[in-house]
Amino acid sequence: MKVAVYPGSFDPVTFGHIDIIKRASSMFDKLIVAVLVNRKKTPMFNYEERVELIENSLEGLDNVEVVHFEGLLVDYLKKNNYKILVKGLRAISDFESEFQMASVNRQLDDDIDTVFIMTKVEYMYLSSSIVKEVYSFDGDISKFVPEKVNDKMKKMRRESDE
Ligand code: PNS
Question: pTM value?
């Protein structure tokens, strides 16, 4: 069985991530979406929320599992005997950091390969950071994130306004 792992912060998940998840899930028998628990950073959503938002945004993708991991990605892979990483690649600006991460992961564990999937043109500009930026100025993020994420962020805004 060919299993691939799609790691990320997903803070929050965007349509760009969902597109990569859909396409990667059709290429592998199973896709694990691995949400990073980074205790050094304060995310907008804790990892339980991020996992739940991804799960709730995946309709009919039976071969996708959403998990969280902490620490080195290669350790998570090794522990579970996974060997393939999937990453989305947007503009050239992504290339350098992705190349660095893939190279470091390779140095840490020579068994691991990273497969890059080119983002669809319509999502080239899209990132979780830009979603948070638009949201912070009360902008409409419904074109960027799944409905469940939009609903949750709208609810957070209402609660913070009260
Ligand atoms: O969505 P992101 O923030 O671009 O994802 C980055 C992620 C989670 C894939 C990366 O930060 C990561 O793998 N973190 C775990 C720690 C680790 O293994 N670091 C070494 C890889 S360079």
Answer: 0.97
